[in-house]
Design goal:
homodimer, about 160 residues, alpha+beta, 3-stranded antiparallel sheet, globular, disordered C terminus, DNA-binding
DNA sequence: CGCTTGATTTGACTCGGTCAAGACAAGCGG
DNA sequence: CCGCTTGTCTTGACCGAGTCAAATCAAGCG
């Protein structure tokens, strides 16, 4: 990938610094990484970067819209540079793996709730929970039990 | 409301204790309360209950399916006793208020992702983000700014 | 080159929640 | 009704993820 991030940063009104380039490259290589992973990866390009610097960079990137923060229940926050399009996420209950999924429907009925209780809705966030291919293959006998864990609210699909 | 919780607990294989009844009553009165609120409310019925006891009770209730845990991004977890039906949530970006919203669609297209990347999906979790009636009325001038905050990923509705 | 201002470093700190050991009581058999 | 067993509650220490603040540093301007 190796996009030239510098102009993107400048367009957004941010200065171009080594920590920011290192984090952006790390994000491009690891589409759904948590802060801790990004520290490790970013250190390949910038060995002295501190965890707090990464938090600061990520906060700045999210604030200007260059990155997006995703917070699956029960896991540390993940970050991604794929922004501007409308996509959702598949999350594996077992290993936490995340995959992107496009919303192929223009006007999804379920996403325009009939009774909004006076709310003005500006975004619908969808998370699909399940088991990834690897975890299904690795622990077929546990599948039923794992699925039972969050099945209580009623499955949708 | 004052449902008789005792048989529900016993059916689920749990003992009937004062802390559990207090927390269940608190949950019935406060449909989307966080753990801290539940401690406060439960203490009206059981003044000596400890926060950790509430956490323990909630964990037990969620494990047997008598309660559901909801974790909106950037806020402490909420609990509700409305289980078994399939409903989603409206969350106010400004004050964190939560409202239930039924999914009135039987088979929602967006909830059956075309490409599941090898995942077996068992649940689709939907969170609608926006502003509640009160916050819209209270801070009309801030509305645009607040909405800008998470608008970056592309609004759905 | 040097200034200004935003960015980074360092370290302490907060919050939400978990873990573990012992005291306690629900619900069983007698 | 009594006492036992086992699950539950209490108490207190602990943890991870993330934030805050002061001081240092450097990007980008003139």
């Amino acid at each position: 990938m190796e996009t030239t991030w510098a102009p993107r940063l400048r367009e957004a009104g941010l200065r171009v610094t080594r920590p920011r380039l290192a984090v952006l490259d790390a994000l491009a290589d690891h589409p759904h990484a948590d802060a801790d992973t990004l520290v490790t990866v970013a250190r390949l390009a910038h060995p002295t970067i501190s965890p707090q610097a990464v938090y600061g960079v990520l906060k700045a990137l999210v604030a200007v819209g260059l990155a997006r923060r995703v917070e699956p229940a029960g896991a540390p926050a993940l970050y991604e540079v794929r922004v501007g399009d409308n996509h959702h996420h598949l999350v594996c209950r077992s290993c936490g793996a995340v995959a992107d999924v496009d919303c192929t429907v223009g006007a999804a009925p379920c996403l325009s709730p009939s009774d909004t209780a006076g709310f003005v809705v500006d975004e619908a966030e969808v998370v699909f929970w399940g088991l990834c291919r690897e975890c299904r293959a690795r622990t077929p006998e546990d599948t039923a039990q794992v699925l039972q864990h969050r099945n209580r609210g009623g499955a949708h699909a």
